[in-house]
Each structure stands twice: as structure tokens, then as C-alpha cells.
Protein 1
Amino acid sequence: MIYHIWLSQCAKLSCDKACRLICETGSAEGVYRASGHTLRQKSYLNGADIEALGNKDLKIAQDIIDKCQRSGIDIITFSDKRYPGALREIHLPPVVLYVRGRMPDIDALPVFGVVGSRKPSLDSSAFALKMAQELTQAGMLIVSGMAQGVDSKAAEGALKAGSTIAVLGTAIDKPYPKSNWGLYRDIIKKGAVISEYPPGARTYPDSFIERNRIISGLSIGVLVVQAGKKSGSLKTARFAEDFGRYVFVSPGLPTSDEWEGSNELLRSGAFYTACAEDVLSQFRTRYNFSAPQTIDRSSVCMPEGLSKDEQKIYLALEEPKRLDRIAADCALPAEQVAAALTVMELMGTVEQTGTQTFKRK
């Protein structure tokens, strides 16, 4: 373990070179103990690489191990049997993974990525939440980047139905954005948060792109929700294509800049996705999915005079909920739900308890 951390944090070798050296020498310790002469025989190592590998100080690596032990952070190395096999297949596999929570047996599960806009519309937020919830109910394990917007909604939806995993582009002890601390803790309780960056590590702009390759590498497919022309989720989709994974895209307005990236993915051959079945149908020959769970609400006393949509909304309010969650649970557009809630408030069947939060009256 200490030699893997030394290789990634002290020698600072690129992931592809580090993992290749581990395989060729038999272990990370083998790399550490390799002579300069042996290393110079490796055609893919340059002078800077060999000089960096000459730094044999293990103090930084040991400090990282000590921090992880104090904070309950698990360390999974490239040589560990628990290391996800799917990640071994990709270009630039992370040398070390830092984990908070319980890492599931990823190779035995259909892991599916959900990513998208940091500033999605209400409809996109509701769609991401609903898709993640239904795919989790069916037996998939949702992975996201825990970014603001679509990623966070996907994690919330998955947690409603089971567990989930999130890959950080920051240090394992520094979720981003800070407003996601609550979600970070919720994921740890029911799933796992993963990062290739140790506690206290600095964050760089490229760190989030590097995070995206892990999301795609872990997944059998990736769903992109509302990607603009320069959206980071397009990087995740490109990684997925490079790794031979499926790419799914929810459709958007052809004239909207906010959907330009999504529509370009559709034109290039991504799967049009409007419901969970559009995803599940592509993998049914490989996995035995469960039917989505339903909630028994037959005992609810329904007020008179409600339309069918208003009845669905009333049934969904078994607890106070935000408008976007109501829309996701009812599979209705957010604007339509907002209009119905206004009518229901006037009828006295629901009331607003906070910003865009409603409950039965």
C-alpha cells in the first residue's frame, strides 16, 4: 500500500506509466526497489520520470496512510483484489482509490453513470432523479460525480431506492461543492464516496476531467442529461465511448444552447433516452433486472374534485416534498406540476411549507 501511494503522490508518475511498471516489475514495491539501470531500460520513461522515481522518501505516503486510518478512509490500490476490474481495462487507471463508506462489489453489479448540467431546468432535475431511482429499483448501481445539479439529483434519486456511489474530483475529505456535505454524508451511510486524491490534496481544474474517466470506467453505460456545448459531462461521454461503454442521452430542444452538447451526442449515435426502460432494454441479455417498486397508497383518503394529475400529486405527498421531487415521482413536467399545485392550494388540499416545498393540508 505505501509503495502505491509513494508512486502516485511522491514520484508523481502518470497513471499509465505507474500501472505499467507495477505489472512489469510484479508489484509497487518492485518499482520502488528497481535500480536506475533497470528503469532506464524502459523506453516509455523519460529522464524526468527516472529522476522522480529516484526519490525514495516514504514519509508523505506514510502520513497519508495515518490520516486515512484516523478518518476511517479505506485505501484500495491497483494491486488490491478489491480494485474494480472494470477500471483495470481503461487508459490511465488510478493507482490508488480512497474510499469512504462501503465499496460494493462493482464487478458483480451493473454500474451506470448519470451526469449532466450543473444548472439544469426543473424538468431535467426531475428526470435525473426519477431515472436514478427507477434504475436503482431495477438493480443498477448509480454512479455520479456528486456535482451540483444533475449529478446530485441522480444521487438523491438512487438513495431513495437503495445505495449509490459518487466519484469526487477533489480530495476524499473535501466534497465539492461545500453545499453537498449533507449528500456526502448520506451517500457514505448507504454507499460509498470514491476519490483518487488523498485527504488534504489540492484541487486543480483538470482534476474534474480526471474524475470523469473514473465514472465512465466503472460504468457499463452513461446517461447525459442536459449538456451544453462545453459541458464537462461531454468529457464523461467521450471517455465512455473510448472505453467501449454505452452512451445514453435525454432529448432536448434543438434550438437551445443548454442542450447543444446533448443533441450533438444524439447525432453521433448515442441512445435516445426518455425512460428507464430505454436503458434497461440494452442490457437485459446480460442482467436480470427487477420490476420497479410501487408504493401502496390505497389507504389514502382522496379529496373530491381533483383531476387525474392532481390525484397523482396528492398521492405523491405522503411527506413534504419539493416541486422537483413531486414532478419526478409523478413523471410529470415540472411546469405542469407547478400549475396543478397552484390550483390545489386554492382548493385547500395542499399548502406550501417552504420554498417550492408542499404537503397535504
Protein 2
Amino acid sequence: MESKRRNFMKNTARFAGVMGMASVAGLSPLFASENKASGKSSGKSSGQDSLTKSNSKGEKMKFVTFNNGVKMPILGFGVYQIEDLKECQRCVEDAISVGYRSIDTAQAYFNEEAVGAAIKSAIKGGVKREDLFITTKLWISHMNEKDAFKAFDTQLKKLGLDYLDLYLIHQPFGDVYGAWRAMSKLYKEGKIRAIGVSNFYPDRIVDFCLNNEVIPAINQIETHPFLQQHEAQKILNEYKIATQSWASFAEGRNDMFKNPTLSKIGAKYNKTVAQVILRWLIQRDIVVIPKTTRKARMEENFDVFDFTLDSSDMATIRAMDTNKSLFLSHQDPEAVKWLINAHKGKL
């Protein structure tokens, strides 16, 4: 397992140097969960409706309501690139101790066991399973109907769970329709509360929705001040699909954390650039999962529910949009080749 993680990170770094591959990660706060430990919710919603609840520290956690009625905290904690299993477990335990309840991992992160260990520790310490929202993802090498069932069982065992809150297709390649049939069956059986996709561009989303019975609950895509995804979100809204951001801080590229525009807005509210970005995304009803291994940063990213950006701030940030990815394009043939071959024989 250790060699697999090292190879994964080495390949990721190599590809990042050539193609500019992004990090995917996240953070999340304490909430009074309305989620039940069943596979499906009986409630229906408008898909982008949101709900606020007060937590024990007085902050307000906002929720995004999926098109099947399941509610997800709008701020969550992700574990991509936390390759050391002990460190990953410590980070998730820290996040939960701060108040985070939504955890995002993936088959291709090679750390589901560590997340599972942290969940077990949290439950032993008194956190209720139904108050946790656990997400993982299916990788391309298992992207067919038969392998998807096997992968799901393995992932669930690694996480030490008897159901998932959210299961995503990680990349839009391979037999995504076969995998979706398997995921839909697991969803209908109550083993997954909601299913969704990641890195699906608008054309792929439309095709997917028009050719499947179960519509994705969410789409996780690169979204930050330099690539704001307004048109993509508009199309997702049409199909009542929630939008989730990866690389919310653009991995610090373009001197994001020193950006004068964002710094000026932050000074206005006595907030950091990171907090401004998270608040901007949250006000757009976009689920965020910024990553950190430092508990102090977890607390900082948690502290974004006590201020609201005004309309002029939102307009100022919107003007920063270049509508260009800072990382890989899923329409680049070389990127597609790399992604498909990235984990062959490793998962």
C-alpha cells in the first residue's frame, strides 16, 4: 500500500509538471444533521435550495439540498494528497474535533482506511454516524458495471461503514454508463444515500442526464475566482444538480493568497483571502472542500458563517474570472491518456 501511494504521488507530480494537474481536497463544519441512515430520502427539492442550522459554537452551517431531498453540509473536509495514513487519520480526527462532519475521500487517494479509522474513533468518542456525511469516488479502472459493484464493497469495508452518504464517478472516462447502472442499483437498495459525478463538463452532463433514469445529485468541478463556472452552474441548476468546487483556492496559483482585490475585500470584513473565497463560493450555493493538514487552518476555514459579502464584493470577484482552467483539461487527449493509465494495476 505504501508503494502504491508513493507511485501515485510520483505520477501525479510528474503529470502536474507537464499538464498542470490540480489538487482536490477539502474542509467542513459541525451541523445538526437531518440525514437518516437510509439509502434514499423520501423528500423532493428544487436541487439548489439551502438550509441553515446553528451549531454548538453559534455559527450557522448551510446545507445544499440534493434533487432527492438529501442534505449535504456546504463546507466539508477533503483528504487528497494526504498520503501518509497516520497523518491522514490525524487530520480527519482533528477536523471532526473542530466540528467538521463532511469528509471527502476517493479510491484513488489510497487513504480510505485512514478515513475509516478516524470515523471509528469519532463514533467511539460519541459522534453519531448519522451526523457524518461521507463521500468517496470510483476510479476509471473500475468504471464498468461488474467492477463497480466489487469496488464499492471493497471501499465500504475500508471505510468500515455499512452505507455511504455520497458516491461519485471520479472521472468522465471508461464505461461510465455501466458504472452508473451499478451505482443506481446500490442507491435504490439503500446502500448509498446519493450518487453523483466529478469533472463532467456541461456537454457530458446533458448527455448523461438525458440517457439515465437517475440524475446525478452533484458534480464536483474545478471552481475558483479565476475559473468561476457560471455557465456550467447554470446548466447544472437546470437539471437540479448541485455544484461542488475542487481547487477552491486555485492551489495558491497566480499568487491567490496575496491577490490585492481579495485582500482588500478581506480587510473590509477582517477576514483572510481564504475565508473570502470560501464565503464567495458558499453564497453561490457551491459546496466547498478546501484542504489543509493544519488544525489552525481548519478552524480558519470553519469561521466563514459570521459575515456576508455584499453585492459589490460579489461583482468585484466576478470580474476576476478568466474562464480558463489553471490545471488539466478533460478535453486534452494527453490528459485523458494519463488519467486512464494513472492507476492501472494499482487499484
Protein 3
Amino acid sequence: MKKQVLVLIPAVMAGYLLSLHAPVAARPEFAQLTGQPCSNCHISPQGGGALRPEGEQFRQNLKNLDIPLSPRYRVSTGRRLLHLAFYLLHIPFGVAWVGLFYLTFGPALRRKALVIPPKPYIRQMIYGAVVILLTGPSMVLYRMKTVPGMFGTRFGILLLAKAAAALVLLLATLTLIWRSTVVLTRRYRRLARSVEQGLETDLTRDDLLLFDGAEKRKALVAVEGKIYDVTGRNLWRRGIHPGGHRAGHDLSGAFSEAPHGREVFDRVLPVGRLAAEDVGEKGRSARWAVLAGMAGSVIILLVVALWRW
């Protein structure tokens, strides 16, 4: 059933996007000829369909004056189909990129620290960024054939704003991926070696977040200032305990709602102590990258909303 749903979702999205692109059968070369957006003549902002009075007058003038159109203004059917294919790739991969950025790095604003994200999330963000970088310029070249000027039109100015915002989002994504995978993974491995060697290790709350038990990492929890290793225990598979408790956190206040008390940890030897929280400069710089990426994504959405196709 889940596989069927996953197949239906892109099919429905593709059908919806195809319906949005129905008006491209109009004559976008008129926009290139006049220097005006399609909405000046058409009721629909995307062009095509019923005409405004100005559009009727323009059509009548073309008919009366017998004005020929230069072949360079015309857009072939093959090019339109290629643009549609890029559009169908650009939108879902862009949505996936922004959505996973918020899901993966957004919580860092609340907990004031990055964690090691799931590898599938990182891969999907990279795929999304690559597809956007490949399809975006191609779509721009197509649109600039029908909308003259990069700096003299509404479309061009908004396009520049969108490109700048996308660049900010890309730099923020690459920065956060580097910090949350390479930098934090190195720190986790160094601390994990100390735990495995039996050395009593002091961990800050930020360090403790790295030991969440996911993707074969060790699972550590803190209780009343002491840190316990619960890796491999039946009730802590993949770092998740029944009741929704997760490894990598301080569980000192969770016993009031649990069916047992703190005595369950008397059978577990502590491996370290919970030190005072120290986010440091790295944590603050990571938060700035998260804010920059979020701002870039919001600007992109505003540009798309303001665009008059």
C-alpha cells in the first residue's frame, strides 16, 4: 500500500503541473515583440485564453497592419516540451530541498546545536540542489527568449532576486552539511573512542546529542548528572525507548511519567558525567547559517508569488 501511495503522489503532482502549463500554447513571442508581460493582453496572468480589451485591440492591429513576426521570436514545440520537462523536475526537487533543509536544520534554532542528520536526508538535499542548478539556468534561457531584458523587466528583476536567494540557500546548505556531517562525525568518533576505552568522559549537552543511537552510533543518556551507555539493550533499539524517550538527552525529569524509577540505572555503569552546556562559537555560526538558508527560501517563495508569467 505504501509503495502505491509513493507512486501516486508524483503522478498526481505531474498531472497538476501539466494542467498549470496548459496556457503555454499561446504566443509568448508577442511578449518579446512588445516588451510587455502576457497579462497585459490576457485575463490569465500566465497567458492564453480570453483576451482583455487591450489584447483584442492588439490582435486587430496585427491583422490590419499585416505585421510579420521574426522567426527568432518563435519558440518551437520541442523547446516548449523540454522546458516543461525541466519544470516538472525543478518544482518537486526544489520543494524537497527546502523542506528537508527546514526538517534537518530547523531544530538547531531551538536546541542551539546541530546534530548528525540521517544520510538519506543529506543525499536528497544534494540531489535537489544539483537538479535546481541544472534546470534553473535552462529555464531562464527559455524564459528570456520571450521576456526581453534582465534588468528592465519585472520578470528579470525578480529573477535576479530569486537567483541571489538560491545562492544563499545553496551556501547555507553546503555549510551546514559540512558542519553536521564531517565536523560533528569527527567529534563523535573521538568521544566514542574515549567511551569504548572505559575512560570517564565529560560530555556537554551538545556532545550528548551526537550519541542518539541512530545509524549504528552509540546510545547514551544522562540521568542526574551521570551518563549511561544503553547501546544494544532491548528497550533502546536504534536509540528509542518505549514511551518516546530518545538517546542523546537528559532523562532526569522523565521518571515522573515512567512505570519505573531511577533504580533501573543502578544496573548500568556510568561512562561519564554531564558537563555544563557550552555551545561556543561553532554553535552560533551554525545558527546564522540556518537563518540565512531560511531567509533565502522565503525570498524564493515571495518571488514565485510575485511573478507574473
